[in-house]
Amino acid sequence: MVQKAKILLVDDRPENLLALEAILSALDQTLVRASSGEEALKALLTDDFAVILLDVQMPGMDGFETAAHIKRRERTRDIPIIFLTAINHGPHHTFRGYAAGAVDYISKPFDPWVLRAKVSVFVELYMKNCQLREQAALLRLQLEGGGGKTAAGEAKEPASLLAELSARLAAVEEQAEALSKQLDDESADAAAVATAAHLERKLTGLRRALDALEPGAGSASSVSSQN
Question: Which of 11, 39, 89, 172 would you call most buried, defined as having the most Cβ atoms within 10 angstroms of its Cβ?
Fold first, then answer.
């Protein structure tokens, strides 16, 4: 069973949170409410989120200050932040949002379809990263000699485990490639494209590490280096 991604919604107005939930419910992910910057930071202490929708204008700790705290924490600095604001003070105001670490900046009232599409991209990227971490964990077990087991509880042969890892990685590679093509076709945000490219680089590194474990890989590389 695939675990749902969590999306953090931060706004001091309950009616705005309700509207966001109505728009994003079609994504079928876990939506978490926070009515202040402090409440958002508390939620980020214990849970992992695919993306944060953060209102700029909030009493006390506003969106800019909240984003600054999020980006200072090692655990949360890489979580994409989409700023939502009811006002637009011009380029300087927008620049401040990007300087605070936002990947996007949307003025209200926004198009529900556009917002849902933007959020869905980051949810999908988050899912692919989770799959990549799982494959990396399996590969690490193999490298450490942990091996694997069959359904009957018997230890798998190294070649069998490598084949399984390769097949799982190939599935993630195929999905990542499809996502990258989708982003290109839709002229997506530069931040989303950059995140997808980073994911592909990580997949390439994992594939090289896996290929290096294949029988004969060492001798083949040795012959190649001599030529």
Answer: 11
